[in-house]
Amino acid sequence: MLPRPEYPRPSLRRRDWVNLNGEWEFGAGEVATFDRRIMVPFAPQSELSGIGLRAPGDVVWYRRRFQAPEAERLLLHFGAVDYRATVWVNDVEVARHEGGHTPFAADISAALSGTDNVLVVRAEDPLTDLGLPRGKQYWKAASEGIFYTPTTGIWQTVWLEPLPARHVESLRLRPDLAGGALDFEVGGEGRIEMTASLDGAVVGRWSGTAGRGRLALEEVRAWSPASPRLYDLEVRTASDEVTAYFGLREVEARDGRFWLNGEPYVQRLVLDQGYFPGGLLTAASDGDLRRDIELAKSLGFNGARKHQKIEDPRWLYWADQLGFLVWAEMPSTHEHSPESERRLAAEWTEAVVRDRDHPSVVAWVPMNESWGLGPAEDAATARFLVQLYELTHALDGTRPVVSNDGWEQALTDLCTLHDYGPAADLVRRYQTIESTLDPSGRHRPPYLPGFAYRGEPLLVSEFGGVSLGAGEGWGYSRARDPATLLETYRIQVQALMAPGPVQGFCYTQLTDVEQERNGLLTFDRQPKIDPDLVRPVTQTLKSR
Predict the structure, then answer these.
(1) CA-to-CA distance for 287 and 2, rounded, in angstroms?
(2) By the 8 A CB rule, do 246 and 280 touch?
(3) 268's torsion region: left (phi>0), alpha (psi -120 to 50) or beta?
(4) Which has the least CB within 10 A, 4, 197, 423, 440?
(5) Which secondary structure element, helix H or strand E, spans residue 300, and what is its range?
């Protein structure tokens, strides 16, 4: 059976496409060799790839033949290749891309040779280069601490998209809840016909030339975790047709609170690192992506901070469909230099552009815990954080931006703090804004020198991390049995939801990952505590 057969790009869908997942030839080394077989889109480090080597080499090669569908133009798409990719079709170089988590495409029409063609990919991912945005992918021989098995090469779907010569090139959606309309920008040529529908009924039409426009909606329904109403969108030209969807919702950070659709909203998030049994960063199936969200919701969470990973777009699709808030976070570098700054900013730009039309995404997190930055007193540290903050707002001005999640923040729309202290410390620390921002007893101060709290909403975006029993692995603390784990969680959540400045939280974490065993679920997604007992604790009301 073809792995990951679902359409890979939920934001702009066409009826005709060709999935190139499946068995490819594979090899490693500076010189192209193809002496093994690999199952794409799983990385060679994973079991599902059929290889399972932790260190396959800094340079790997892929090759396969493909039948080119009849088309005036043919695009070749890669969901993600870690880290540098060079692509040839019939020995003609068609693409180069840098960035291990973001998509790229190439028009391969001129390189085709009839219907039978050869595709070759070279992927370079030097593990010892700590200036690459690699997040939790470890650069040493074995996983340890908070770092896990790395990913090299292709790890998301590869596919072909046949197109007419004149087609819809891009689609940018900006839903306007207050105005009851959809602002949009269509790239391409010629006349556009656009139809919006809700629950199968047409609620808006627009026609005009490609470019910017506004489609008024006859029926206005807000998207939220409690009611994830989505509109379907059809976009037609004389020779092309694409479909998409959108949700009407507004998010704000003001007056010390987070607002969703004009109402104060408490975010009850769970840390989700996006590692999966058998596939590492790649879920074995689309159903596994959906199941993780359903499991998180069964535990009472209304969203997740996707930690140190730009997740598969299909996970965001399910977050949109099921009603699940998302903090989108950039994988960090682990060594500072002008080149590491360039790499991170460039890849983060691609990530924001890819994901900014998803209603589930409610916050951008370009930096975590000062990873890959210089000393706090270095002016370059603050400069780069401000640069990322301003860059993100320029790419998308509709969502709050977290400057440096955890501590040492510069300009930020949310004050987010990490605190793995015992429950008694949480009770004491989060009573007032003064006690919350007091740097004494903290690993790092909340703000960098020269920056201070400006009244932004305050959330504890990492806490907990409690492992269960006396088995292997570790957590930030340990509970002897499920009842103790539940009670510890209850005390921690109640401390944050007691009267005081905290407006939301993110618990560490959803699942165990390799040696880190502090999930509410095991790595194979078995609950450690009955979700029916966890859910009312997670949903503890915020006291005023």
Answers:
(1) 15
(2) no
(3) beta
(4) 440
(5) none
The CA distances from residue 25 to 33, 58, 64, 77, 504, in Å, are 9, 17, 6, 18, 48
Same domain, 211 and 338: no
Residues 158, 189 within the same domain:
no
Q: Which of 327, 374, 366 is nearest to 348 (CA)?
A: 366
Nearest alpha-carbon partner for 105 in 17, 237, 232, 5:
17
Other Cβ atoms closer than 10 A to 141: 9
**What number of CA atoms fall less than 13 Å from residue 80's CA on the CB side?**
26
**What pLDDT, in 10s, does the model give residues 35-73?**
999 999 999 999 999 999 999 999 999 999 999 999 999
pLDDT in tens, 253-289: 999 999 999 999 999 999 999 999 999 999 999 999 9
152 and 32 within one domain: yes
User: Within a 10 A sphere around the Cβ of 375, how many other Cβ atoms?
Assistant: 10
Out of 216, 249, 282, a domain closes at: 249
The CB-side HSE value for 55 (13 A sphere, CA atoms) comes to 9
The string of DSSP codes covering 262-273 is: TEE--EEEEEE-
Task: Give the domain range for residue 226.
Answer: 170-249
Same domain, 240 and 122: no
Residue type, 252: E
Asked if residue 39 is part of any domain, the answer here is yes
Model confidence pTM above 0.85? yes
What kind and span of H or E run contains 508?
A: strand 502-508
